[in-house]
Specification:
two-stranded antiparallel ribbon; about 400 residues; alpha+beta; globular
Length: about 400
């Protein structure tokens, strides 16, 4: 095998350097989330295109914390930035409840799943507006399959140089995050065989999946300009990489996760992502180089994580070996322990991880709901109740 000197240290070892208080982290990092939901008819259990109407109704209560998405099957809820995850969790639950009430007011429900379980989903009804029209003109049938929902986590990193370096350090953990957050096994009436089918559909875009390793902020800026000139993206907002410096906020945005089934799943994801960013900043400020897995191995590891989720084995993109997925997550959490402890999140993350080990990922729980009576409507009902108790069947 060809030697790869820059790949000799596993990412957990690099990120774990400097145990104790993370360098420069005297104040907790801010964290905020964006959650996308599908709108579902509670009688037919099919997706229903009333996103703009539901968003308008919810705006009376949520204001800027609600928005529309590419398709009219979707609506988005957002939190403000928080340093305390308990407060963030309260806002996540309240936002879901407000969106559920707005949907119920139109005879609908919101579903926290990465992909539509039932319904005719292609071609999608696009949300009106010049940006979405331009997207359709550029990307054509790619837009037809984008009734898919994600959970995006923003962590406060104001320095653009550090934001790019954080992206480099987080890349090896993208497959692990994909497995942890997998919640899209069904697509339009069939089991895809994947834990995260949304990951697979998004991978078709020209600028999606794991980002490149950036040599510098200048390298990032030049590449974005070249991709824009080539019309592979419309602008900075169209960069669909799994990690990106936000184009409108002083944050690093991690976009790899499916929409989380429950608020607790969202909070776990937010805590882990914040700890990853904090640990990366420790490494960066301590002069630690970012690991550089081969792009083809990182892509293969992301595919395997999307297929199998928490079950089976993962491809470690650094060692290039198959390892039990649960062991890979344990290794990540061990590396993150100093940052989790610093933010007061260690007990929460350990408790929620043990819950996932017992109950399974969102994808596992969806399939468990199906096995009870071999019924996809039962899966939809399970998702609706898990999304918010406001709309439990």
């Amino acid at each position: 095998m060809t030697s790869h000197p820059q790949q000799q240290s596993p990412p957990g070892d690099v990120l774990a350097a400097g145990h104790g208080t993370p360098v420069g982290m005297s104040a907790p990092l801010t964290v905020g989330v964006e959650e996308e939901f599908l709108l579902v008819d509670p009688v037919t259990r099919t997706v229903t295109p009333q996103g703009p109407q539901v968003a308008a109704a919810a705006a009376a209560e949520l204001g800027h914390r609600v928005g529309t998405e590419l398709t009219r099957y979707q609506v988005e809820g957002r939190t403000d930035p928080h340093t305390c995850l308990t407060e963030a969790a309260e806002e996540i639950r309240a936002t879901r409840a407000a969106l559920a009430r707005a949907a119920i007011g139109r005879g609908l429900r919101i579903a926290a799943t990465g992909s539509p379980i039932l319904g005719l989903v292609t071609p999608v009804p696009l949300t009106p507006g010049p940006r979405y029209a331009e997207s359709l003109s550029l990307f054509r049938a790619l837009d037809d399959e984008q009734s898919a929902c994600a959970c995006h986590v923003h962590v406060g990193v104001a320095d653009p140089h550090e934001a790019i370096a954080v992206s480099n350090h987080l890349r090896p953990w993208l497959p692990t995050l994909t497995a942890l957050a997998a919640n899209s096994p069904y697509w339009a009436g069939r089991d895809t065989g994947y834990a995260s089918w949304r990951t697979t559909t998004w991978g078709r875009w020209p600028v999606a999946g794991p980002p490149p390793y950036f040599e510098s902020p200048t390298h990032f800026q030049e590449l974005v300009e070249e991709l824009t000139t080539a019309q592979a993206v419309m602008d900075r907002g169209g960069l669909y990489w799994d990690i990106r410096p936000s184009h409108h906020l002083p944050t690093v945005e991690v976009r790899v996760a499916d929409a989380a089934l429950t608020p607790e799943d969202t909070v776990l994801l937010a805590a882990v992502v914040r700890a990853l960013v904090a640990t990366a900043l420790t490494a960066i400020r301590g002069g630690e180089p970012a690991p550089r897995p081969a792009p083809e191995m990182l892509r293969a590891a992301c595919w395997r994580a999307a297929r199998d989720g928490l079950t089976g084995h993962a491809i470690d993109p650094i060692t290039r070996q198959l390892v039990p997925q649960a062991a890979q997550i344990e290794r990540m959490l061990h590396a993150l322990s100093p940052a989790l402890r610093h933010h007061g999140d260690l007990a929460l993350v350990r408790t929620q991880w043990e819950r996932l080990r017992a109950e399974g990922s969102g994808a596992d729980r969806q399939r468990a709901a199906y096995r009870h009576r071999s019924s996809l409507p039962d899966v939809v009902d399970h998702v609706l109740g898990a999304t918010s108790p406001t709309q439990a069947p």
